[in-house]
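Have a close read of the entry that follows and walk me through the local backbone shapes. See right below:
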Amino acid sequence: MQFKFVNAFVADYATWMEGNRIVVEGNHAYWVQQAEYSNDFRSFRNYFDMVFAYANTVSLERQLKCVDVKDMQIGDVFMEAPLPGHCVIVVDMAEED
């Protein structure tokens, strides 16, 4: 999983899990090793706090590909941009028998 910040920095969760953390200085972001490996909920939530601070619907719109609703899959994102914009991530699906 990865998100691009507004400044085009790629924040991927795999790098975050390895203990690297993102430092933002002005319009520049970079990785710094600051912690041990972690894949627990607290670390995951901290990752998303960083993503929510520096990515938005404008940066997501640049990154996403259009998918027809009939081809929807878990992980797809429905969004309406530009700012303030809204997005919904598909986290589960039900099928009719």
About this structure: Residues 1-55 form one domain.
